[in-house]
Amino acid sequence: QSQRELYRDVMLETYGHLLFLGLVTKPDLVLFLELKKEFWEWKRKETVATHPGRW
To answer: Tens digit of pLDDT per residue, the chain (55 long)?
Structure first.
C-alpha cells in the first residue's frame, strides 16, 4: 500500500507542475485521479481473485 501512496504522491506532484505551466486544466486533473483510483481498485480485485490464497 505504501508503494501505491508514493505513486499517487508523485503523480499529484507531476500534475501540479503541469497545472502550474498551464499544460492541463483542473478538470483534467480531477478526471485523471478518479480514473487512477478506479484502476487501482479494479487491479486489486483482479489480483485477489487470481491469487486468493496469497492475500
So the answer is: 688 889 888 888 888 888 888 877 767 667 777 776 655 554 455 554 555 555 4
Cα separation of 15 and 32, whole Å? 9
pTM as predicted: 0.45
| Residue range(s) defining the domain that contains residue 39 | 2-50
Inside any domain, residue 12: yes
> Looking at the domain assignment, is residue 55 inside a domain?
no
Q: Which of 28, 27, 29 is nearest to 8 (CA)?
A: 29
Domain count, the chain: 1
